[in-house]
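Cross-posted from the bioinformatics board.
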Amino acid sequence: MGPIVCATRGGEASYRTQARAIELAKERNLELVFLCVVDAGFAGPLSKRLAAALDDELKRLGRSLLNVAETRAQDQGVPAKTVCMSGPVRESIEAYLRQVSASTLVIGCSRSSERHQAFDSEDVTDFAERLRQTTSAEVILVA
Amino acid sequence: MEEFLTVEALVIILVLVATLVAIAVRRIRLPYTVSLVLVGLFISLQRPIDVEVTPELILAIFVPPLIFEAAFHLDFRLLRSNLAPIIMLAVPGVILTTLFVGGMVALGTGLSFATAAVFGALIAATDPVAVVALFRALGVPRQLAAAVEGESLFNDGTAIVVFNIALTVALTGAFDPLGGLFDFLRVALGGMATGVALGWLTAQLMARVDDRLIVSTLTTLLAYSSYLVAERFHVSGVLAVVMAGLISGNVGLASASPTSKIMLFNLWDYLGFLANSLVFLLIGLDVDLSRLWTNLIPIAVAVIAVLLSRGAVVYGMPLIARLFRRRPLLPINWRHILFWGGLRGAISLALVLSVPTTLPERDLLESMTFGVLLFTLLGQGTTIQFLLDRLGLSQQPPHRVAREKRLGQYFAGRAGLRRLEHLHREGLLLDEMWDGLRVDYLRDQKHVMEHMIQLFHDHAELERELLIQARREALQAERGALGDALRRGLLSEHVYEELLTDIDYRLEALDLIQAARVDVEID
């Protein structure tokens, strides 16, 4: 069976999402991959140097978040792999699931009802539904 | 020469008064601009100062820096994310306000509808400077501040265009709806195009000449020249300044070095402060309270009309928009702030002063405008913080406050422990006492850390923020180390500058990441 992929970016539900993924990896005895996709597109057009600095800092932050998640998994006796990618979030996740033939995707959505939470629970539900149809992975939402 | 010196002395006195007010309001909970109006009123009651406030003075001297400063600071991304409500409030909102207020004032005061519509148009321009200053101080959501500020920037432009059309109708009695629409589009789009063209040109120059003094001069020239050029071509000077400010503040700044950016932000903060100070002080000085008293009933009608029409626009239009959108255009508590935060200021004052004396009801329009200005500034301006508090918009979410508190307790505890250790090393604290106190301190520290970890579990975004903060501090330390290396002769000036610029770009990138916190898509 393909690995369990946990997509994480350090949002409100990320700890709960990671904990659920670790628990599943333990239960099913499957490989666990923490995936972080960074996308500098939110900043709009920038000078070359600032765009490069932003991309680099986003990746650095992503790697740090992944290292924290990896340590948490190891503390519970679950070895984990980390992957940091750059690009549009949804498309990158979908492509990665296909690439590794993932069995499960664990993603979180914020409980906050704050407006402008660009990916609210409705959006993430739509995204999960699309992934279920376009990939063979089971998609688990954690709120 | 004598006249010049008199004007110079007057300007110095006004700036001095404004500065004293700015110092005084640091200790009281009253918006700065509101305090300026009150002080101006007080001075005019005690010893009237002979200041002739002309529309040219306000529109050509004060408005360009006021508007340019606001547009320059407005983040295009935030503006874009609020574009639909801003356009809705600034274009159809202004037209509806003109009609609603015009209708109600005509009914309530007996003015002709055409004359009342002139008042409706000039009073449609909001000036939320007092509210926005409060937003900054209280840490209100940036999107809400952008919506309030964006609306104000664009409705100034549309209100002036609608005002000119209404004034022509009031003076000539002739109204050509198609011609009016064409005029509206020509003046508004022409002004915007002028601002975009000059702003883009300036942004290109800023990209090529990255010298902090030159780019500062270029933006100052841009603020005034965009207004003058647009007015010369009989298109909207205000909208030209808005677009010029937006383009230079977003596109132009993107290529400027961090040093130039700091200089530009400081310069425009200062010019905005100066222009605001003088405008609101002049409003206070120019109020004739006895004339307002004589026109109390029409003023009351005007205030009610302005409030009702603002309510209809702010609450009614999003309901209509909801028919076509899945998501609400504006959250309900934002609408309350937009309603009560719709203060009036410099543009309304300049417009009413520009009404020709040939319009018989000019004096009444002036009294009603001053009345509404005073009501919004003194009534709404002083109570908006109460509303923000009640709606929970001025407070940080409890988990952020809790994190701050725990972090503070942790730092304080560590400092206390270090001090005890020092006293113990110096022999001022006996071993047993030190051990006893240390155990207690360490237990408290552990307790605080456990709470912090629990907070991170429930609100993992705090952990992300802490990582960003830590990286920022590390970069600041790297910056300091480079300075040391330069002083010790380990680095050449050229290499130092290059490395320093790289760190400054990284710090700016962290600011962008921090500001985009709400855009985290997947947890």
